[in-house]
Amino acid sequence: MKQNPKDIPVVESLRAGILTRDGFMGEDTRPFTQIIMDDAALLASAGTTPEEVADKMTELTKAGLTATGTPVDYQGFTVTVEEYMGKLGCPFRDHRAPKRNTEVVRKDGRQMAWTDLTIHLIKQHGFFQGKGSPYRLEPDRLAAFLFDK
Ligand SMILES: [Zn+2]
């Protein structure tokens, strides 16, 4: 019998092959609650918050959405958004995010990429994903990237 996704515990739905092929944990063996706490400390020492970081990421994605699939220049960043069919479920079960990738290049050549689900995980759960997860963003690097620190 197929299990209703809503009944799968968070810990399990973070693993590879449950909601997404790669999952959200990478090779990280810390409990996800510990990852959230460790990253909160990193972000605090970078002088910002998950909300602030996620809001800036949303702003950049929105800028890219003005010309999907084409690089858009915005406040010293070049943003390219690609959209795909379907949605991805949040492992914490409160949201389904459109499948959308945002690639951002700064004038100094640094670049980062994220999905809408990545933004949601940061904003709503303070979760940057486990080390080795293909979509993990290092909180201090991300803050420096977004806010030119
Ligand atoms: Zn969520």
Kindly describe this structure.
Helix content is 35%, strand content 21%. The chain has 149 residues and is an alpha+beta fold. It has one domain. A 4-stranded antiparallel β-sheet has the order 1-2-3-4. Helix 3 packs antiparallel against helix 4. The mean pLDDT is 94. Residues 90, 92, 94-95, 120, 124-125 line the site of zinc ion (ZN).
Please summarize what this structure is.
The chain is of the alpha+beta class and 149 residues long. The chain contains 5 helices and 4 strands. The chain has one domain.
How does the SSE layout of this entry go?
Elements: H1 10-13, H2 32-45, H3 50-64, E1 72-74, E2 77-89, E3 96-106, E4 111-115, H4 116-125, H5 139-147
Antiparallel strand pairs: 1-2, 2-3, 3-4
Helix pairs in contact: 3-4
Residues 90, 92, 94-95, 120, 124-125 line the site of zinc ion.
What would the average pLDDT be, to the nearest integer?
94
For the biggest sheet, the summary is: 4 strands, antiparallel
- SSE sequence, one letter per element: HHHEEEEHH
- What share of residues is helical? 25-40%
How many whole angstroms does the radius of gyration measure? 15 Å
Strand order of the largest sheet: 1-2-3-4
Which compounds are bound in this model?
Answer: zinc ion
* Number of distinct beta strands: 4
Structural domain count? 1
Summed up, the helix count is 5
Strand content: 15-25%
State the shape.
Answer: globular
Structural class, by secondary structure, is: alpha+beta
**Low-pLDDT ranges:** none
- Straight-line distance between termini: 52 Å
